[in-house]
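quick one before i forget lol
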Amino acid sequence: MDLLRRMSGAICGAAVSAAAAALLTPRVRWRLKVPRWLLWLTASIAAAITVNELVGKPVPLLRWSVLTMMLRGRHLLREWQVGDGRETALEKYVLARARPGHVDDAIRIIDHFGRHVSFLINVGDEKGKILDRAVERTQPRLLLELGTYCGYSALRMARVMPREARLYSVEFNTANAEIARRILAHAGVDDKVTVIVGTLGDGGETIRTLKREHNFVPGSLDLVFLDHDKKAYLSDLELIVDAGWLHPGSVVVADNILVPGAPAYRAHMRHNDGTLWHTTEHRTHAEYQSVIKDLVLESDYLGTQTSSTGTSRPER
């Protein structure tokens, strides 16, 4: 089954290519009134995808799982699930292959799934190391994640945060939250991570839950990881600041600043660098590939401190 799954992209590509080639016969093309150039284009793309799948998927945009994700873009932006069953497939894959109680093994299996089985929209292994270092540097006691997805970044943070630390992860999609909870429990870190269904922009309900049930009080929050709706990065950060949860030295890490992009958030951090924030821009790549560039922002909160510095610090 695993071999069939790995070869599925090549099989689909070959099938589409063959079908397009068959349609290029004059009689069939005349009956269907399909332009010759469109059939050649379809056949060429399908052939390229087939070759890409067979040689190990080095070009991310020529992966069937990336193509299907792009075709389901509206569903993804509305539900924060691709909608083709890959998230459920990931859960089954992890529970079947990762050793129970081994967080490192769960992370390894998810990375393998994202690179070789079906593309995932979590932070990924390359950018995940930036998150790891931020947690290790901060040594946080209380962490907040916006955008649980299937629990991958929560696994990474739980692995490196102090033993007494607690992570609260807020997820918009109920199905994602359930998948994440089962993966976190399988990895043995569900006692360190609490997944909450909601959003900070839901009129105050989730914020009240964090305050009343999870002891979010002024100055208590040490680290925030943003990896949810990119348009909500800045507004949700402002809600966190307005709640008074941060303290000088708190750190906010934000993924996907270039792809798909959070320009308003980046502009805010640049404008307030040296006064409210000190920001490091980490140049990296988008998830599970080395072609498309991305940025991760790591911002230290200064509170009301002032400084003459006006630009972001250079990359570490």
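fyi Confidence is low (pLDDT under 50) at residues 1-6, 305-316.
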